[in-house]
Amino acid sequence: MKKITKNMTVAKVLELDKSLADVFMGFGMFCIFCHLSEEETIEQACKAHEVDMDLLLQKLNEELVAKN
Questions:
Q1: In this model, does residue 57 exceed pLDDT 90?
Q2: What residues contact residue 47 under an 8 Å CB cut-off, 6+ apart?
Q3: Contact call for residues 20 and 26 (beta carbons, < 8 A)
Q4: If DSSP codes are grouped into helix, strand and coil, which group holds residue 41?
Q5: pTM of the model
Q6: What angle do CA 56, 62, 63 make, to 5 degrees?
Q7: Res 1 pLDDT > 70
């Protein structure tokens, strides 16, 4: 199973499972709708939105595991 890392783009994460958008939105990260999601990494998005990257990655990976 693939693990989501800080170096993955937001778009790449959503390619793994579209429902992961709910996790991003739960953190107030509506960047999933932005054209920059194709190039912006999780790390960059977290810095821009002042989100705890470790917590976001934990939640994304938990959700991904739960879906599979």
A1: yes
A2: 53
A3: no
A4: strand
A5: 0.91
A6: 90
A7: no
Token pair of 47, please?
């810095």
Q: Would you state the pLDDT for residue 3?
A: 94
What are the structure tokens assigned to 62, written together?
Answer: 């938990």
Round to the nearest angstrom and report the end-to-end CA distance of the chain.
Answer: 9
- DSSP label of 7: T
Encoded tokens for 4: 């989501």
Q: Where are the alpha helices (DSSP H) in 1-68?
A: 10-16, 21-26, 42-49, 53-67
Q: What is d(CA 31, CA 64) in angstroms, rounded to the nearest whole number?
A: 19
Q: Where are the domains of the chain?
A: 10-67
State the pLDDT at residue 36: 78
Instruction: State the pLDDT at residue 63.
Output: 95
- Mean pLDDT of all residues in 17-31: 92
